[in-house]
Design a protein that fits this description.
Layout: E1 2-6, E2 15-18, H1 20-26, E3 33-38, E4 41-46, E5 48-50, E6 53-57, H2 60-65, E7 73-80, H3 91-98, H4 101-108, H5 112-123, H6 128-143
Helix pairs in contact: 4-6, 5-6
Pfam family, one: DUF1905
Protein name: DUF1905 domain-containing protein
Organism: Actinomadura citrea
């Protein structure tokens, strides 16, 4: 479904307001997972509710990729995203999780975004020692 909106300034949140009737018509609840497309650039997100308004976050990277700026009026194509979110864990992290049943159970109970945070921290390490420390830290955090 398509609608037009204005790219809002960064405070309190750079984003796009979604008309309530669009959210309702999507049929995914008040905060549905969606795929957003602007000017041919697509990304996945979730509709947020802030101060009674339905909003889509618009990061600097997505703003640049879609070639939009604060104050621009844009056409937004919004689709309900029903595909399961999959976080792919690196093999060394999988081994560490499998070696610790308590950490594995805690990790399996996390939301996709929290899992993604752990994976991103591990994969962003530049040195093997840093990566190893980050895996150990993740396991310790999950055990706590």
């Amino acid at each position: 479904m398509k609608f037009r909106t204005v790219v809002e300034p960064p405070e309190p949140m750079r984003g796009l307001e979604v008309p309530a009737e669009v959210v309702e018509e999507l049929g995914g609840g008040a905060r549905p997972r969606v795929t957003i497309t602007i000017n041919g650039h697509s990304w996945q997100s979730r509709v947020a509710i802030m101060r009674g308004r339905h909003l889509l976050g618009l990061s600097n990277a997505n703003r640049r990729a879609a070639d939009v700026a604060t104050g621009d009026e844009v056409e937004v194509e919004l689709e309900l995203d029903t595909e399961p979110r999959v976080v792919v864990e690196p093999a060394d992290f999988v081994r560490a999780l499998d070696d610790d049943p308590v950490a594995r159970a805690a990790y399996d109970g996390l939301s996709d975004s929290r899992r993604r945070e752990h994976v991103r921290a591990i994969e962003s390490a530049k040195r093997p020692e840093t990566r190893r420390r980050r895996i150990e830290k993740a396991i310790a955090t999950l055990r706590a």
